[in-house]
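Today's session is about reading a structure prediction critically. Students often jump straight to the picture, but the first step is always the sequence itself: look for stretches that repeat, for charged clusters, for runs of hydrophobic residues. Only then move on to the predicted structure, which in these notes is written as discrete structure tokens rather than atom positions. Here is the chain we will use throughout the hour.
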Amino acid sequence: MRWFWVVGAGLVVCVGGCGDEVTYFPGGDGGGSSSATGSGTGGGGAAGAGGSGGSTAGECGAPGDCFLFQDCCDCYAVPVGTEPESCLASCEVPACDADGATTAVCEYGTCTVQKEYSCNQADAQCWGVPPDCPADQLPEVADACWTGQCVPAWLCDVVTDCSYCLATEICVHSFLDGPNGPWYSCRALPAACPETPSCACASFICDQGGFTTCTDIPGGIYCGF
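Below is the predicted structure for this chain, in token form.
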């Protein structure tokens, strides 16, 4: 049995040789990195779900409530109607385009940037060696093998540890590690959570994933049975 998080869809459960058949446990209205975060810097926005399954008013309720903002310094999602200030730098390629970010969505009431890349190393079932990537990137995985490309870690659906999660995100780890090491996912920080996330405000994420226990870990939560 393999369990892994897919940001924007929640938990995908794959049992044995399930092929393309998966079961989704919705984890919000969309997926991506936390509001107003991206390849550079940026401030966090308020998320909209918390506690053991309840919700609080957030900055968005649907993907159409958000849009993708970019300049030469940052790439992040903001509510429609917001007018972010641009940095004064000049560049040939703005930040979202440079990293491959294309879509703003809504997760737990927060405008977020959709995760664009598959980086679950447990999915690489081929002979080969992943590429050596810079500290802020991870090997991309497609068709059950490494593509040989390094992609921005902040846009990965699965990361290898909580250090890749942004300050405005919560790190979610499941009870079962893959054959190529443990994996984690970076989700939007619920509005009920303080700057230090915990099960006290985010256990509903485990509940929605079909898990029965939630344990605090540095920077996030651990979902199990």
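Discussion point for the tutorial: The longest strand covers residues 145-152.
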